[in-house]
UniProtKB/TrEMBL annotation:
Naturally occurring in which organism (per UniProt): Terracoccus luteus
GO cellular component, one term: plasma membrane
Keyword Cytoplasm attached: no
Chief site of localization: membrane
Family: Belongs to the 4-toluene sulfonate uptake permease (TSUP) (TC 2.A.102) family.
Parts of the chain that traverse the membrane: 30-51, 79-98, 104-122, 134-153, 159-178, 190-215, 235-259
UniProt keyword list: Cell membrane, Membrane, Transmembrane, Transmembrane helix, Transport
Localization terms from the record: Cell membrane
Name this protein carries in UniProt: Probable membrane transporter protein
Amino acid sequence: MSDPTLTTLAFLGAAAFVAGWIDAVVGGGGLVLLPALLVGLPGASPAQLLATNKLGSIFGTATSSVTYYRRVRPDLRTALPMAGVAFVGAAGGALIGLHIPKSAFNPIILVLLLLVGAYTLFKPDLGSEAIRRFHGARHTALAMLTGFVIGVYDGALGPGTGSFLVFTLVGLLGYTFLQASAKAKIANFATNLGALVIFVPMGLVILKVAVVIAAANLIGSYVGARTAVARGSGFVRVVFVVVVSAFIVKIGGSLIGWWA
């Protein structure tokens, strides 16, 4: 693969900033950045794109995790066990992802996004206040199961991971959108790290690109996390619905041939 031009790096940097902002607010920045990498680096293999995306994104998830923790103070008794198993799941998923074509996941992602978007849209009170549905060990176990399953998905492909984490924490466990976003960022950092444990030793990261998107993603994540905390759960919910809807249009249009 030839070295990317300055124009390509600028394009990928802009995409990484937007992806970082979206990731910090509601998750799903990979659905912006991965297609941008595919366009900007047509000679790269799917594994190289996934690895480069993960290294670029982990700086953003680290930044938003710290920002959320300082300002929202999520309960680490749930967040840390969930992140731990998410790390393990992502490492296993990365090994699976090396052998699975990305195209096989698009129909599954579309169905999941349709269900998530419809449920959120037609339940206007969802995530507006905390209504904890499970307690004690059962609550932690469900959070860990969520972390592991979504971690495997993130390691294997990844787009929409943050959105799926947020939705599950809100819909299944009863957190507000703001609290769910805070916990999702910690888990998403762990899934990025788990995948990189597999990808980096294999030499799959395109380092020059990863450095550019890491810097842009970090800035976008910082701005997005501060915006979400300042505006509250109502704002996060609106952005969540808008982003999920955009992803549905994009993936659905690709599947029926509206665009490449």
